[in-house]
Specification:
Blueprint: H1 2-27, H2 39-42, E1 49-52, E2 58-62, E3 66-67, E4 90-91, E5 98-99, E6 103-112, E7 115-120, E8 142-144, E9 161-168, H3 172-175, E10 177-178, E11 184-185, E12 191-199, E13 208-217, E14 223-233, E15 237-238, E16 248-253, E17 256-260, E18 266-270, E19 274-279, E20 297-304, E21 311-318, H4 352-361, H5 387-394, E22 399-410, E23 415-425, H6 434-438, E24 439-440, E25 444-445, H7 447-452, H8 457-470, E26 486-508, E27 515-534, E28 553-559, E29 562-568, H9 570-574, E30 585-593, E31 602-608, E32 611-619, E33 622-625, E34 630-631, H10 632-638, E35 656-658, E36 661-667, E37 682-683, H11 693-697, E38 717-723, E39 730-739, E40 759-762, H12 767-772, E41 778-780, E42 784-785, E43 813-816, E44 821-828, E45 833-840, E46 851-853, E47 866-874, E48 879-887
Parallel strand pairs: 42-48
Antiparallel strand pairs: 1-2, 2-4, 3-6, 5-15, 6-7, 6-14, 8-9, 9-12, 10-11, 12-13, 13-23, 14-22, 16-19, 17-18, 19-20, 20-23, 21-22, 24-25, 26-27, 28-29, 29-38, 30-31, 30-39, 32-33, 32-34, 32-36, 35-36, 37-38, 39-40, 41-43, 43-46, 44-45, 44-47, 47-48
Length: about 900
């Protein structure tokens, strides 16, 4: 017994020691032993990729300090949804097939003792990768969302789509060695990065993703002269174009003049510091009809740095395996700053930590790429480019850039913040002849004229919104009395009165007779109208923007030729906007489409409140909207004389007089506010009384008779029926909610996304209805004819992931009236199995009664002409049989 107790004690001690060792290993993140590694997890990092799909800018983010797919290590599927991530991982607009990103990466460098060290998510050339997450579950990515307050993802969420990742540069064995630095083993800065990325579907934010970094020094040494940067290699073009990387151009936008006020009569300049990259002509001259044009632009904007006064650098370069062809703008060397040879004569790609740090910290603002051939041999600042290549470099090449800033210091245990936005701008290219006319050296080379035909307006506007979402202008977040920066524009002025003010009297006695001089000035009283435009916030992060009311919950119930939509608007009609703190619900819109792309959706019907906007005359022929819309009853209460019978009678040329003011009125949206009309949206319970404020705040307190069978408040129940639909077509439907905007802040009405939450259905009976009515399975088209032009008719190849596929990979034979769970088998007349499909869909899914055979055999070959027969075997063993004719 004694020996047994000793063994137990010995084993217990071993377990305690092992547990202590593991615990110490996980907490001792700051080990400065450069030959060590966090070996307990070094072999199994929880690599993952997730795709921001909520907005129009579709961007994949990774938990290794990179974005885009080329440097990610999490496989080809979204970590949270399992959906495939398209090559490049940056698509714009959504579902267009246009690629705007190859890969991006976070770089950070510092002086540590006597070492110059840099850690990168990816270097973009020899594929050095030095950031890794911990093993699962410690290194798993996290998702949050503000879309549904009842969802487990809601707590702590900032945007509609938050992804949070944590990674470190301390995995020495995984990071390996730098082949360009004599095989030197990675030497970490010993930092831990918490990366949060945020995306929205709202119209003002759908073209951007905000990144927020928290960089913590987990080592024992100070990090001095720290510089951080964002590296981007875009390779803009159609996803299927193998040469899209060869014609990118990039540049830097140091400032932009923003217009505001009536007729944009006022303006102010801001310095957004935008690094941009685009295709050289936007594909407007593309001769391949299968390729999607790419006329837009993507960019990086820094929105928060750890200190106000920092050096910003913009460097771009072209990487090439031949160092003599490796190019980037370089300043001429001076005695204080001698020229650096990056690698064996190369002047572009910075290899090794010391050269990466030099580029991070050099303070350069490279000239825009299109000006490369414009640099003269007499230029006193820039090195003269190789003239045999300068023309090619100017009109587009395999370009990448680094936007960086610093210096600052991170003490052991200290955490510093960094925020930037990756964003897009529409219609950067609008002139298809611009490239040939102005950027074809040596003959047609006028880079200034080329630049003047580029449109930065949408990009600059999105950059401004990125800054405003990060730090709301005119909002005192911390309550210290400072609301941010603003500019004032005087739009109209006149002199109401003048008074002579005598300042002093001087009598000159040397003159005969003496002369008296009166020194005075005239004090004017002015009447003027001023417009205040907030330009910046109070330097306290908000990460918050105005939002539309949440979209209603809705259910789709298809039948032959019709789709019934039932929806409940409780959340939409009671939500308070987090930005304005108002219940700003205005109405609903119902859309239908033949595929998932945003531009494919058409408005079917709408409902909105009956209210009116009041425009106030501010002088000089200008009118301004200052307040939220008014209901008719409120207008009559405010302005009883003369009584407003119909607000629309009062127009610009016939305004409503009120004291010294003049107003005119317009409808807010369509004022389609009558429910239950034929062909319109109707309330399912029109006599249901409106819930009390207590029940609105706490719907669980509602009486049983006020709640539907599935637990929703009856007062907010609606339905709409879309009829006249084809049963052999897949339809996408969605219901959006919209508000009335924020007139005081110049924000137009906001609407939820047409694509987020959309549901698809065929206008065929549900699986329940088919079973109840004893409907038999049928297939279509039958016969299937290859010459029938199904794709041209829109019956094949309309899916977002099918647009670029060849015809033989989008063919479809449809099975309808299926049980929710069954086996579909296709046989030759000889009884050979051609294909077997396991059909297993939740019966509540409107598509549970439908499935598709892509006409590919079980051997992955296209089926041939012939007569086939098919069987459907249900879960209870019932079998249905039919014939199919295919004419290829």
């Amino acid at each position: 017994m004694l020996r047994k107790s000793s063994v137990v004690l010995f084993v217990t001690l071993i377990c305690v020691l092992m547990l202590s060792s593991t615990t110490l290993g996980r907490t001792a993140l700051g080990s400065d032993n450069k030959d060590s590694d966090r070996g307990f997890s070094a072999q199994t990092p929880a690599d993952a990729q997730a795709m921001h799909r909520i907005g129009e800018l579709v961007l994949s983010v990774n938990n290794n300090g990179t974005f885009g797919t080329s440097y990610g290590r999490g496989g080809s599927q979204d970590y949270f949804t399992g959906q495939p991530i398209p090559a490049g991982g940056c698509e714009y607009p959504k579902n267009s097939g246009a690629q705007y990103g190859y890969g991006g990466s976070f770089w950070i460098g510092a002086i540590v003792g006597r070492d110059t060290l840099v850690s990168v998510g990816a270097d973009g050339w020899v594929m050095t990768q030095e950031f890794y997450p911990d093993k699962a579950p410690f290194g798993n990515m996290i998702k949050r969302s503000i879309i549904d307050p009842n969802d487990s993802l809601y707590e702590g969420a900032v945007s509609e789509e938050d992804y949070i990742a944590v990674y470190m540069d301390t995995f020495i064995k995984l990071a390996g060695s730098d082949p360009e630095d004599g095989g030197r083993t990675h030497r970490p800065l010993n930092i831990e990065v918490t990366q949060s990325s945020y995306a929205w579907s709202y119209s003002y934010a759908e073209d951007l993703v905000l990144f927020d970094y928290k960089i913590k020094n987990i080592g024992s040494q100070s990090l001095e002269d720290v510089y951080m940067g964002v590296y981007v290699d875009a390779d803009v073009g159609d996803a299927g174009d193998g040469n899209k990387h060869t014609d990118d151009i990039c540049g830097f936008l140091p400032y932009y003049e923003y217009k505001y006020g009536p007729n944009n009569m006022c303006s102010y300049k801001d310095n957004p510091f935008i690094a941009w990259i685009a295709d050289n002509d936007g594909g407007l001259n593309e001769t391949n009809p299968a390729y999607t044009s790419t006329p837009h632009v993507t960019a990086t904007r820094i929105v928060r740095t750890p200190a106000k006064e920092l050096e910003v650098s913009f460097n771009w370069w072209i990487s090439n395996g031949d160092p003599s062809l490796d190019f980037g703008p370089r300043l001429r060397g001076t005695e204080d700053h001698p020229f650096r040879d990056f690698r064996g004569g190369g002047g572009g790609t910075p290899m090794r930590d010391d050269n990466k740090y030099y580029v991070l910290s050099n303070g350069e603002f490279d000239y825009d790429q299109i000006y490369t051939a414009n640099i003269q041999p007499t230029d006193t600042s820039w090195l003269y480019p190789n003239q045999s290549l300068a023309g090619d470099f100017s009109d587009g090449y395999d370009t990448r850039y680094l936007l960086s800033f610093g210096p600052f210091y991170i003490q052991p245990g200290q955490t510093l913040p960094l925020s930037f936005s990756y964003l897009a701008g529409k219609d950067f290219h609008t002139n298809k002849d611009n490239l040939n006319d102005n950027l074809s050296p040596p003959g047609n080379y006028n880079p200034r004229a080329f630049e003047e035909k580029l449109d930065f307006s949408d990009l600059a506007e999105n950059a401004r919104w990125a800054s405003w979402i990060y730090d709301n202008p005119g909002i005192d977040t911390d309550g210290d009395g400072y609301f941010g920066d603003s500019v004032i524009c005087i739009t109209d002025s006149s002199i109401l009165d003048s008074t002579i003010i005598i300042d002093s009297i001087l009598v000159d006695t040397t003159l005969i007779p003496p002369e008296t001089t009166w020194y005075s000035h005239i004090d004017y009283t002015w009447d003027y109208t001023k417009i205040v435009q907030w330009t910046k916030g109070d330097n306290v992060p908000d990460f918050k923007g105005a939002s539309p009311p949440p979209a209603p919950d809705f259910w789709v119930e298809p039948t032959y030729g019709k789709i019934r939509i039932r929806f409940n608007g409780y959340r939409s009609e009671t939500a308070v906007d987090v930005f304005s703190q108002m219940m700003d619900f205005e109405g609903y819109r119902i859309y239908i489409a033949r595929d998932e792309r945003s531009e494919s959706y058409s408005l079917v019907t709408s409902y909105d409140l009956q209210n009116y906007n009041k425009y106030v005359y501010i002088g000089d022929g200008n009118w301004e909207l200052f307040e939220a819309p008014f209901k008719l009853e409120k207008l009559r209460e405010l302005y009883p004389v003369p009584l407003i019978v119909d607000p629309l009678v009062y127009t610009r040329i016939n305004p409503y007089p009120h004291g010294d003011s003049l107003f005119y009125f317009e409808k807010q949206d369509l004022n389609v506010s009558e429910l239950g009309v034929v062909g319109g949206i109707r309330k399912l319970y029109p006599d249901q009384p409106e819930p009390s404020s207590t029940v609105k705040s706490n719907p669980e307190l509602a009486k049983p008779e006020d709640i539907t069978e599935d637990g929703h408040l009856k007062y907010y129940e609606y339905e709409y029926i879309i009829d006249g639909l084809l049963p052999n077509v897949l339809y996408w439907v969605n219901i959006t909610a919209f508000d009335f905007g924020s007139p005081g802040k110049g924000l137009e009405a906001l609407e939820t996304s047409r694509t987020v939450g959309a549901q698809s259905a065929y206008a065929l009976p549900t699986t329940w209805d088919a079973a109840r009515d004893n409907e038999k399975v049928f297939i279509y088209p039958n016969p299937y004819r290859i010459d029938a032009g199904y794709r041209k008719m829109g019956l094949e190849g309309r899916g977002a992931n099918q647009i670029s596929r060849p015809d033989d990979r989008v063919r479809a034979i449809h099975f309808a009236n299926l049980p929710a769970k069954c086996t579909i088998s296709i046989f030759t007349l000889d009884g050979d199995l051609v294909r077997e499909i396991d059909h297993d869909i939740d019966p509540s899914d409107p598509n549970a009664s439908h499935d598709i055979w892509d006409m590919i055999t079980r051997n992955s070959q296209l089926v041939v002409s012939g007569i086939y027969y098919w069987t459907i075997e249900s879960e209870d063993g019932e079998v249905q049989v039919g014939k199919l004719v295919i004419i290829m």
